[in-house]
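User:
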Amino acid sequence: MQMKLALPIFLVLAASCCAQHTVTLSWQLSPDQTLRQNIYRQNGCTGAFVKRAQVSNTTVEWTDTEKDGIKNGKTYCYYVTATYSDKVLSGPSNIAEVTIPEE
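Assistant: Predicted structure:
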């Protein structure tokens, strides 16, 4: 099955950190109807992005934690895509980069 790509629906993706071993992503959706959203992470902002989570269409914030592999002193990049109800996949959001401070 070949999926069609739609234009990105995300207005802005932002990543922040302050608590040890956590990254909080937040975004704002455009008014388009989506079925679910997919969150991808790239360790060190190099190499391949890996799907970290799939969340509902109403979710606009997600936290990546130590149990998910987040470590102090490391840099991570993220982007989000959406799947519409007709199984069309959106393009990616902007890439948000965050560095976790050393302890």
